[in-house]
Amino acid sequence: MLACSRSLNSAVVSALRLLRSNQTAVTGQLQRPLSTQTDGEVRIAEILKEKFPAASSLKVVDISGGCGAMYEIHIESSEFKGKRTVQQHQLVNQALKDEIQNMHGLRIFTDVPKH
To answer: Does the keyword Endoplasmic reticulum belong to this entry (predicted)?
Structure first.
């Protein structure tokens, strides 16, 4: 938890520097270059791509300042068709059951493609 606290403190300092230099901060999170993902984001995205190969959209964001304690997942897949939201979320939770054990929290947003 100390490492996460340090990471959050570091994120706050970085945010203040960005604001001073008039760069953009988005929804309370620092906007990173598109090519920069944390190891946790990459690992979770790979797991979800494997579990939901029909996913038309997938976004994984570490919302804990980079320490991996909390993630936000947006996933759109035809595999969710006909399932209630709670069932869709249960599928995502099941896919990430090993990863979730090391997390503080997880925000999940699921949808079915609208073609």
So the answer is: no
CATH number at residue 54: 3.30.300.90
Range of the domain at 87: 39-111
Alpha helices by DSSP H, listed for the chain, are 2-20, 39-51, 85-95, 97-100
Average pLDDT over the chain reads 81
The string of pLDDT tens digits covering residues 16-68 is 455 454 433 344 444 555 558 899 999 999 999 999 999 999 999 999 988 89
pLDDT of residue 63: 94
Find the helix packing angle between 39-51 and 85-95, rounded to 10°.
120
Q: Is residue 25 a part of any domain in this protein?
A: no
| pTM, two decimal places | 0.69
Is 2 part of any domain? no
Reference 110, options 87, 96, 101, 94; nearest CA is 87
Q: How far apart are CA 44 and CA 2, in angstroms?
A: 23
When divided into structural domains, the chain yields a total of 1
